[in-house]
Design brief:
Serum Albumin, Chain A, Domain 1; mainly alpha; elongated; 16 helices; Helix Hairpins
Amino acid sequence: MRVREWYSWHFPELVKIVSDNQRYARVAIFVKNKKDLTEEKLHDLAAIVDDDEGIARSVIDAAKHSMGQDISPTDMENVLAFAKRVVSLSTYRKNLHAYLVSKMSVVAPNLAALIGEVVGARLISHAGSLTNLSKYPASTVQILGAEKALFRALKTKGNTPKYGLLYHSSFIGRAGPKNKGRISRFLANKCSIASRIDNFSETPSTKFGNALKQQVEERLEFYATGAAPTKNEVAMKNAMDSVLADINVDGVGSDVEMNDADEAAEMKSKKEKKEKKEKKDKKDKKSRKSDIGEAEETPKKKRKRDSEIGSSKKKSKA
């Protein structure tokens, strides 16, 4: 970090005592000129380093015996201005990450539980929306973000890429060189499932995401030691049972209303069935009556036709 390089000309021992960049910048802003650092500032300095009086004491002791050179007021102002800028950007980054975590817990909790908020948000951003990501097959999710490498490989008839944005997941880094492609394909499959669950589920939950993450962990263990992983059917059934159990616990207060609604719906369905049955019986009665009427009319028509034939024969003889 540039602040370390600049301020080390004045206080080089501070680099070994304070390792975090943001904390280093805060300490540099507080100390300013090392000659002005006294025992009276011990508690204020300890508050900057997370109430660690040991580190604060080490900073004060190092400032007394520092080998750094003096720095001009103009240079000190530039160093402090740059340090304030670093602290501001670091604070903004933390706030942005907190916002991303809270947003992903609502939009895609299972995807965030599986691969983390940052990688999950990158996948959604690259796809355009969670709906678009849920429509992609696992093979597309696997190389999402490596389109240029894919088209170049297809053009030159070379090897296609094995992973895109999923490479930033911790699972890919933990896999061996020979198993990176396998675990990438398996992880893409689970990401596709998680995105579909998040997109079409009404109540957000991380049950399925945790179950899918456990499956990926077991697959890594399988590649490393050969231990048999849990079957997908069993893992999904356990996750579904836990989700249903949570829904039942949350819905205890509204059981009476739900029962009343079910009874009303059942009564309505019975009434509709009764009306349909009555209509059907009436229709059957009408059809039976029409059949009987036709059966009675048929002999009369036959006798009438025979009489007409007999009369016509008599007329022909005469």
